Each structure stands twice: as structure tokens, then as C-alpha cells.
Amino acid sequence: MHEPLRLRGRRAAPARAVVQHADRSRRSGSSTGPRLECELAQQTQARASRSLTALSLQDSVGPSRGATGVRGDGGPTAPAVSPRRQQRYDTMKRLMKGLVLCFACAFAGSAAAQSWQLVWSDEFNGSIGPSWAFETGNGSGGWGNNERQYYRRENAGIENNALVITARRQDFNGFRYTSARMKTQGLRNVRYGKIEARMRLPSFMGAWPAFWMLGANLPQVGWPDSGEIDIMEHINNENRSYGTIHWRDHNGNYAQYGGNTAVGVADWHVYSVEWDANAIRWYVDGNKFHEANIQNNINGTEEFHRDFFVLLNFAIGGNWPGFNIDESKLPAKMHVDYVRVYRRQ
């Protein structure tokens, strides 16, 4: 297999035309559609209510032309309302109810359209599922990144119904560290959907855990032509998560675009992307922090309209995190509660 040269040490200038700007406010990742429809319903109801109020005020100012009345106790009677005015009033009430119902139905329909159907998951309840294959060794040039670890199946296991990848200070086959890297290549592919994992990450100098995807056509076309979607990367002792895409652009050049957000990586968090034919959006705990536009293959992003497979790994050192490795923190563990893949209902 051609090993992907991930080139993380030097982050190229982003292809600005490819992306929609990251949402710096970390809003909720839900669509604005239902919220907009709700606002429209409220505005419509308010306008109808104002019209009803105006009609009511017109009626309360005084009786119809020439209409007067006296109660038996000598007090004035309620103003008389003409049949025509009453008909207008009743019609407006029915219109208001109908409009509110219409917008309520639209809101419910849009909310339902945002729901996800689970198509595959590994909950790691007692064992690692059959959809994973394990890499062995150090790849080509440290997996293209000068990583310092040797990957072994023995460094992945289950603890308390969670996957645990353990990086160790262990001399093995000429390398100073061991860890694990696993993938769904040839077993599970995904094209579009929501891909997420709940994780608790190590944090120390030299740490580089990742949850990411590569194009299923990697063996045929190589990297970066296959495309790469990094759902979560974390380096060293930063409290930060990175999300990035890598591809070969329409000019035949390597390109990447990434965003990041602050997060306490030592705690449990859900890291995810929502991916469709228009865009890839990155989230932590449901809060969007980055978005890339891939609509109509803009700037050569056709790679991101094909099948991908999922990877989990815990690298030690490399071009991006550097080579100042705090060995006092080893062994160190990357915890994964689950990996889940959804599609739109």
C-alpha cells in the first residue's frame, strides 16, 4: 500500500475559495432551517394578533353608526358589532390558526429531516469488533511524518468497555516506542453522513492521537489524490482539537484546509464531522467550529464525493508535534468509548 505522506509539519496556506468560514462562535451544529421557520411562524402570529387587536379596538371605540344601548340598570350596553365586522374578525382568527398550524408542520418536518439513522458502530463492549484491521510497523518514513513508534496489535485492547490504545516506551524492531493503528479499510466504507467518536485523549509532549479517514481508492491513486478527512487530531499538551482536509486541487497541487477549537482533551468529548455533497462540518460535543465547501467539486475536491474508510491511531513524535517526547508520561492511553456512523433519514 502506498503510504500517505501527511505533511503535517508544514501547514500550507488554505485554499480560501474552498471553504465557508469557520463558525467562531461555536454555535450548535443544527441547521438554521427549523429556527428560521419558527421565527416566521412567530412573526406571522404576531401580525395576525395585531390585526385582531386592531379590529377589537375598532369595535370597542364605539358602536356601529347610530347604535346605542342602555342596560336595565341604566348603564350602557356593550357596543353593537355589525355582522360584517364580526365576520371579518372570525375570518382573521381562523387565518391566524391556520398559519400557525402550517408553520408548525413545516417546523416539525424540517426537524425530522435533521435526524440521523445509525448504520454502523463499534461500542467496544467487551471486545474490538470485526470491522477493524491493524497496521504493523512504521510505514514508509514513519508513515510519511517521521513518527517514532512501531505499531503493534498488542497495544490495543478493551478496558471498562472502551477501546484503549496504549503507547509505551518499548524497544521493538529498532524503534524506541510502540503503539497501535487500526482501520476499517476493506471492511467498512462511508460516503457522506455523520461520523463520530467519544474519546478521552492523552496530553503530553510528543503525543499525536488521531481519528480520521482516507479515501478507499488510496491503493490505486495514492495520497493526496485519495483525499483525507481529519476528524480529530491533537498534539503535545495543547488543549485543542484540529480538523482538516487534504487533497490534490484542480491545479494538480497538494492542498489542505483546517480549523481548530479549544477543548479539554483529557476529559470525555464527542468529536464528529457531518459530511454531505455540499460541505464537511466539524464539531466537538455538537458545537460546530469549522466548515469546508466541497459543492460541485470546487477547487478539485471531487475526492470528497467518494468512499472513505476510518482510522484510529496514537502516534509518538513526528514532523508536526516535534521530537521532544516526554517519556515520563509513558505508558499513555487513548480511550475511545465508541465509533458511530450515521446517515440522514
Automatic annotation (TrEMBL):
GO BP term, pick one: carbohydrate metabolic process
Domain GH16, chain residue ranges per copy: 112-345
Enzyme class: hydrolase
Sequence intervals crossing the membrane: 95-116
Spans annotated as Disordered: 1-36, 54-87
CDD domains registered for this protein in UniProt: GH16_laminarinase_like (cd08023)
Assigned keywords, A-Z: Glycosidase, Hydrolase, Membrane, Transmembrane, Transmembrane helix
Annotated signal peptide: none
Enzyme Commission number: 3.2.1.-
GO molecular function, one term: hydrolase activity, hydrolyzing O-glycosyl compounds
Family that this chain belongs to: Belongs to the glycosyl hydrolase 16 family.
PANTHER family assigned: GLYCOSIDE HYDROLASE FAMILY 16 PROTEIN, GLYCOSYL HYDROLASE-RELATED
Protein name: Beta glucanase A
The species this protein was found in: Lysobacter enzymogenes
Gene (name only): gluA
